[in-house]
Amino acid sequence: MKNTLKKIVLMLVVIQNTSPLFAQKTPIASEPDISRIVDTLLYGHENGFITNPSVVGAAVGVYWKGKTYYSGYGMADRERKIKVDFNTLFEIGSNTKIFTGLMLAGEMAERKMSGNDFIEKYVAVNKNIQGKVRLTDMANHISGLPTFHDSASLAELISKDTTKDPLMLVTDDYMLSVLKKVDTLHQYGEYEYSNFGVGMLGYILQKEEHATYEQLLQRMICKPLGLKNTTTISDTNARNMAKGYYKETRAPFIHLCSAMQGAGGIKSSIIDMMSFVKAQITEAGPLQKALSISHKKYYNEENLQIAMGWHIGKTYNTEIYEMRGDTYGASSLMLFNKEHDLGIVILLNSANSGVVNRSMNTILAKLLDTSGSQHKFSQPEVMVDRKTLESYVGIYELQPGFDASVSIEEDGKLAIQLTGQPKLAFKAVENNWFVLEKFNCQLEFIKDGKGICNEFNLYQNAQKINCKRKS
């Protein structure tokens, strides 16, 4: 997470963890029309869900300054022609980890367990890692334990699996056997996302409370918050269970043993997920102490902080708590921001994290961009003469070893290609301003007193990067 270059490589895809480089504070002229923003997100002719055949169904929720907005889209089950509604259950994948982190915070709030407890107090571990891994380390992805979402940590199971679903072979005994074998912690104390670590945390909570993960979920979170459609044991054939899709093809549901439930086993509805997010903002009610503990930053680097699984970064000069999840046939996201009284939930029954990213960026840009630059996107396209465009063509340096190549497309549009990224064409709105609304990105070319362009500014999500010409 210390690799600044890596962050910039992702700039045209999504900026979520970098500190803002540019943000001019000016008041919003009027309150945004949330319904219109979401409606455009779903049905917009250029970038809406309706133009993307891989998006089968979705539910979107936005909480903004005391009001909640819900929208449903498409099919929960395309084959049976069942539409998405507000009670449709979606797999939420790794968003489950936030629930598991809140369970640990609840135990800490009631002084039943200490976040500083070493895990050997609860489960058998290799002697070489005794006195090192704490419960909060597991919740915040700094334990150094195996990841269980890459081929290296699942190599043994991949060699045995004939269904291409190695997680089907993961059992509680297998998880415990892996824990006993771990004699070296990989980058302990540094961020490394670990399904195994959070799964084992969920298992420890079950063992300590003598209850299943489902029982803990209902007792510790769902009942206090009034969540009626959040569970790990829903009937996947039920009418209200969204079927998953990957590239327009039916995808299997994820099946996890009890020692992995806490890493990704929950299914929930947009109503419940929005209630969960709003509870994070208010920090009120019976879970007040647990919520407060769960929002504490247990990992703190310049570009990323972690709070019981929440990934925290600055966007539009404000702090965003965010988490997302993917399964074989679903992608989801939830985030909140206390300063602006904002919460967002996006649930897809399609495995498409790119759509989730773009949807998040679209909503955040409309609500939080106070730089006064958003009007550029709504400006009509203008024709820029060829000579002016040619004056911008060249190679510009963003970082040492990382460049932006500016060129002209056959249709006369200006395009930019970052090192290792696809070429993207921009719309001209002024002679020196070019925009790409899909990624909330703008280019401002700057000429010197002699009319020569030697630099441009790249703006995105209140970030500004100045790029100097190399050739």
Notes on the structure:
This protein is of the alpha+beta class. Helix content is 28%, strand content 24%. The chain has 14 helices and 21 strands. It has helices spanning 4-9, 34-43, 96-109, 135-139, 155-160, 172-181, 195-209, 213-225, 261-264, 270-282, 288-294, 353-368, 375-378, 386-392, and strands at residues 57-64, 67-77, 82-83, 90-91, 244-246, 249-251, 267-268, 299-300, 305-307, 310-315, 318-326, 331-337, 342-348, 394-399, 402-408, 414-418, 424-428, 433-436, 441-447, 453-460, 463-469. The chain has a nine-stranded antiparallel sheet with strand order 3-2-1-13-12-11-10-9-8, sandwiched between helices. An eight-stranded antiparallel barrel has the order 14-15-16-17-18-19-20-21. It has a two-stranded antiparallel ribbon with strand order 4-7. A hairpin with a 4-residue loop joins strand 18 and strand 19. Helix 3 crosses helix 8 (213-225) and helix 3 (96-109) crosses helix 11 (288-294). The longest helix is centred in the last third of the chain and has 16 residues, at 353-368. It is globular and about 75 Å long.
